[in-house]
Specification:
The structure is a single chain. Strand 4 and strand 5 form a beta hairpin. The strands form eight sheets. Strands 20-25-21-22-23-24 form a six-stranded antiparallel sheet, with helices on both faces. Strands 8-7-6-3-9 form a five-stranded antiparallel sheet, with no helix packed on it. A three-stranded antiparallel sheet has the order 13-10-17, with no helix packed on it. It starts with 13 loop residues before the first strand and ends with a strand. The protein is mostly beta strands and 278 residues long. The longest helix is centred in the last third of the chain and has 11 residues. The chain is built from four helices and 25 strands.
Amino acid sequence: MALDPRTNAYRPDLAARHLQGQVEARHFVDGVRHQVIEPIADLRREPAHEAALDTQALSGETVMVYESSDEGWCWGQLETDNYVGYFSANALGPVGANPTHRVSAPRTFGFPGPNIKIPPMTALPMGALLTIVSQTDRFALNGYGWHFPLSHLMPLTAKQPDFVAAAESLLGAPYLWGGKSSLGIDCSGLVQISLQAAGGPCPRDAYMQEAALGTAVPPGSLKRGDLIFWKGHVAIARDADTIIHANAHHMMVATEPAREALARIKAAGSDVTSIKRL
């Protein structure tokens, strides 16, 4: 079976060296690790700003870069979920110290001093990674000297006890195909960010999540945290009767009665393919 090029770094002209013998390419190269230095870095299907947005990388995540162009694009693989695509070179920098914390609020600010009344220097989304060097009872300080509200961060060793609550904190976030933040998020991005907040790995796309996560359960037995899959879509059960999902019908992260959502989506031509319990 051919390797999926969305999660394996190969093209007809270039491929990661570790894939030699598994794929055909004219050249095989070793990658160079980089780190995302912007709050959000778009991963595009082609090296153009108007190209399709496949996913996003968040500040602090690492990318294995296999090609850098004179036009300012890097082709590489996001190490968090193995997604492959093109990043703006301006979004990447050298790898720094290992992250220690993750943003647990929908969005947080980094201030140049321990004072919320001064203009912030950056705004980071849920899931962004930081290296904290010191902290007080209110602020955590990173290596750039920016102060983040301590209540908005969580040590990487800690886990959100209820990943559904993490998803619920993003209610109202606008729908964006390929998005992974409160500025714009899609259905599988919501699942991925929420599960990562709970300390678990999660693939990026709905079909990958359906194949990799949980155990199938029969319809009619929804529990909080169950994942409901359709072809190209996924929702999270809040309880036996309601779901939360990022969807193009509401154009946002929304909750609705499960029965109504299932009927509407079925009427549009899509039946549930599985319900998975984690």
